[in-house]
User: Which sequence fits this backbone?
């Protein structure tokens, strides 16, 4: 799969700038330096190609917008709790933690004929900034100087849902449950991330490997 990296980059930047959020230009500059716009979304699963991370971020935004506007029809009061700019910020920036974890490598890959061959791919390394996942994204954005609302930080922190929980930590469990109850944006971004990865980015190869 080959993505239009420049087109996606332009759309990504345009959406972020439309929020007029303090610090957004610094975020874009820092992401450029980290290689965010060329990074894959994963090492061996969805969108594991150059530019895949931006494509996944855009897919998450599109899914989040559908969820948000659909829920507004069912519950118009949601507009008072969730700002449109927060949908953009949280969905597009939820995975900036992945900017520096992928390195090019040669991997053994099984062909459709059942034989093995060398193929270009990615390996994962956490030596750059081993700070976890959602929490790493929040910290990176704050360090870039982005002004963020509480619901945006929590939506990014908990976008992995239960997968981002330390099940041995009562504090983690209560924090996650409280975040979802207090801030609808948390559930919107969590749902959108899953919809993007498992519906918009599902491939025939994924199904064949089951």
Assistant:
């Amino acid at each position: 799969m080959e993505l239009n990296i420049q087109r996606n980059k332009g759309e990504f930047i345009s959406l972020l700038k439309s929020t007029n959020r303090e610090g957004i230009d610094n975020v874009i500059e820092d992401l450029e330096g980290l290689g965010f716009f060329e990074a894959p979304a994963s090492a061996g699963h969805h969108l594991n190609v150059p530019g895949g991370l931006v494509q996944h971020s855009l897919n998450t935004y599109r899914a989040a917008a559908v969820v948000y506007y659909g829920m507004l029809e069912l519950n118009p009061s949601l507009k008072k709790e969730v700002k449109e700019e927060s949908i953009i910020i949280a969905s597009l920036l939820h995975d900036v933690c992945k900017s520096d974890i992928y390195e090019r490598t040669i991997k053994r890959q099984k062909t459709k004929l059942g034989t093995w061959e060398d193929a270009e791919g990615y390996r994962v390394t956490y030596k750059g900034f081993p700070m976890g996942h959602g929490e790493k994204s929040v910290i990176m954005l704050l360090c870039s100087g982005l002004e963020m609302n509480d619901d945006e930080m929590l939506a990014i922190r908990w976008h992995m849902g239960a997968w981002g929980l330390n099940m041995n930590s009562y504090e983690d469990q209560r924090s996650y449950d409280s975040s979802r109850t207090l801030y609808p944006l948390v559930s919107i971004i969590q749902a959108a991330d899953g919809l993007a990865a498992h519906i918009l980015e599902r491939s025939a190869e994924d199904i064949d490997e089951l």
Summary: The mean pLDDT is 92. The CA atoms of residues 169 and 199 lie 31 Å apart. DSSP finds nine helices and two strands in the chain.
